[in-house]
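Following up on my earlier thread - several people asked me to post the actual chain instead of describing it. Fair enough. Here it is, all 128 residues.
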Amino acid sequence: MSAVSRPDERVASFLRFSTELVAWVATPWALSSHSWWLAVLAVFVLIGLPTVLSTPGDKARVIVAVPGSVTVLLVLLQLAAALVSAWLAWPVWAGCLVTALAAAALVAELPRWRWLTTGKGGAATGGR
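Reply from S.P.:
Thanks for posting it. Predicted structure:
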């Protein structure tokens, strides 16, 4: 059986990375007034987990292989962190812009998420 090719995701990648950047900045910003330890921990979680955990076939280099559903959950974590943190840390107009960005990223990610979770190309099985 041939592996299904990965969907074209240039727009989705741009939107996803833009949302990740917002999460990486807004989350520590929102948490810093409560605890700088939480702010630092948030950076490690938001950057570290997706760096270490990845689905074979989704990234060229995999450090720790995980099923596609874990990759989807990590992206959802980034989207949620960007959305909630922007509203907590920044003015309303910025929260509105981040909400639009996160919604666009969510819609653009759907084909990739289907590909990751269907087991096509070995992606959802963690390479097993």
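The helical segments are 10-32, 36-52, 68-89, 92-117. That should answer part of your original question.
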